[in-house]
Amino acid sequence: xxxxxxxxxxxxxxxxxxxxxxxxxxxxxxxxxxxxxxxxxxxxxxxxxxxxxxxxxxxxxxxxxxxxxxxxxxxxxxxxxxxxxxxxxxxxxxxxxxxxxxxxxxxxxxxxxxxxxxxxxxxxxxxxxxxxxxxxxxxxxxxxxxxxxxxxxxxxxxxxxxxxxxxxxxxxxxxxxxxxxxxxxxxxxxxxxxxxxxxxxxxxxxxxxxxxxxxxxxxxxxxxxxxxxxxxxxxxxxxxxxxxxxxxxxxxxxxxxxxxxxxxxxxxxxxxxxxxxxxxxxxxxxxxxxxxxxxxxxxxxxxxxxxxxxxxxxxxxxxxxxxxxxxxxxxxxxxxxxxxxxxxxxxxxxxxxxxxxxxxxxxxxxxxxxxxxxxxxxxxxxxxxxxxxxxxxxxxxxxxxxxxxxxxxxxxxxxxxxxxxxxxxxxxxxxxxxxxxxxxxxxxxxxxxxxxxxxxxxxxxxxxxxxxxxxxxxxxxxxxxxxxxxxxxxx
Length: 491
Prior knowledge:
By secondary structure, the protein is mainly beta.
């Protein structure tokens, strides 16, 4: 019943509901137009109203949102609100954190413009949420907008990926969010990692360039104000930080890592002690010795490396242990190579690429090919098949030699390895028949070969027969093919 009594609207046993039953409220009290009011509300309400009341929510769902006698007193210009809400089986996601929080049972009260978490039982990333009771948000005097935050929470056995550039991590955390909105907010706490594993397949150079672009250069162009600052300390269990992907299997321990800065420019300091593992380089598996990756003071994201790794290689003449030492910043490290017994750096590169030293290449009459391939060694640090070297073959025996020799380094993202191909081209009958042959001469899978015979049927129209064998071949003897090709020249 709604009645006008003495210039005031009085509510008695007023019931508000929605067709889906999400809202079911009882309203009692009175309100004087442009004057004081005293209204009590009790019942359940659709959680969508929570998103309307505060703009910090990206998502809010709940089985029930129960209102425990919400009381509104004062005037329309100066309103005091007191009461409490209870959420059961709720899911909430805010603009400040990428993961949704499951709330099994939560009671939140509002009194004297202070929102207080009285009870909270929930889960995050498969772990338990604890010790959130007593957290507060103080609202401003106009509009009831959040002004001061003093939130605290502990998470046990939780798995999260935050910030987004970090791999997923499982462990314990004691976190807090404090400060005054909008420009004095800080997210901080203590994190103990039980397991952090990067399993994403990586192309080394592409990953470094992409990381540089996203994490450094773009940050300098940010014009909007940061949402909040960071003050997070990170430690880990021994050897619990891992990279397990196409690059290898590396293990380390976080020591004194600190995430600072803000949401526009995240700063990392501290150290990861590398305890060992394996690393794939130029098609070989290297064993890592204990080393370190240090994030130094300043604005740089890339750690400084001090890493030593070795692998054992054998030729027909000798057994070698090749040792590589990487030092300097991750995006531009210096690499020093040595070998026992002694080899020159050129011999070491030749050994890694072909399994032969330069002297052994010469004995195999592959010296010219080897020198060209070593000149292309930089191609192993480029994206897939990004480098190709060719040479013209001259001399008195022109008719017996190929017209063109190419050394093509082909990088495979999925295996993280590079295979060098020697490709020879010979025009058997000028302007009619061309023969092309190639063989894998180095890398993880050197037992590869191809042959193509191209017959010119008409101008720009060819019939091509091919044979290829490599790790992708569906037949043991390789795959055969026959194609018609049309080549167009565009000026």
